[in-house]
């Protein structure tokens, strides 16, 4: 194990913007919690939280490599839309302590997958609002929907309109 220093600097930064990865027109990763890794003279690498990657299209391969600064890398193959990209992504499951924040995150080879920053204001007009979700309100709506058995899980809400009388053309 080697430690990053002046001769081989490594910096990790929380991405200030949303990042995406796209393959053949399909978004395969989308995160506002990515980490940017800058290492010595190499191009910057974006590490996505695994929860923000469409892992259903990936299979782990037997390939592994070792970086003296980061640790052992595992590789992933992408199978999507008729295309197979062998070892197109990698992750450090248990990286060295100096780069522990990339543990379990997924990075892509930028020459095989398009990795790009997204202007949140352009794709989400309400990006500045608090992302907190009122779970009670959502649960209330769900409880009044069909449970799959043909009936609602709770009694229907009382009507919020009145049926027009005969003078208005109603029954």
From TrEMBL:
Gene3D superfamilies: Domain of unknown function (DUF427). InterPro entries: DUF427 (IPR007361), DUF427_sf (IPR038694). Residues 147-171 are annotated as: Disordered. Residues 20-110 form the DUF427 domain. Pfam families: NTP_transf_9 (PF04248). This is DUF427 domain-containing protein. It comes from Phenylobacterium kunshanense.
């Amino acid at each position: 194990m080697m430690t990053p220093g002046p001769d081989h600097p490594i910096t990790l930064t929380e991405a200030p913007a949303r990042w995406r990865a796209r393959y053949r027109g399909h978004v395969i990763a989308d995160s506002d919690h990515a980490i940017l890794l800058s290492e010595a003279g190499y191009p910057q690498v974006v590490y996505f939280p695994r929860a923000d990657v469409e892992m259903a299209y990936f299979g782990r391969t037997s390939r592994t490599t070792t970086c003296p600064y980061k640790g052992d890398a595992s590789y992933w193959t992408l199978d999507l839309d008729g295309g197979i990209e062998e070892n197109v992504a990698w992750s450090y499951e248990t990286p060295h302590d100096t780069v522990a924040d990339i543990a379990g995150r997924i990075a892509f080879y930028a020459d095989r997958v398009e990795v790009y920053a997204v202007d949140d204001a352009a794709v989400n007009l309400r990006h500045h609002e608090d992302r907190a979700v009122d779970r009670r309100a959502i649960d209330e709506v769900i409880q009044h929907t069909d449970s799959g058995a043909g009936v609602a899980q709770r009694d229907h809400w009382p009507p919020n309109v009145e049926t027009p009388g005969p003078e208005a053309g109603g029954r």
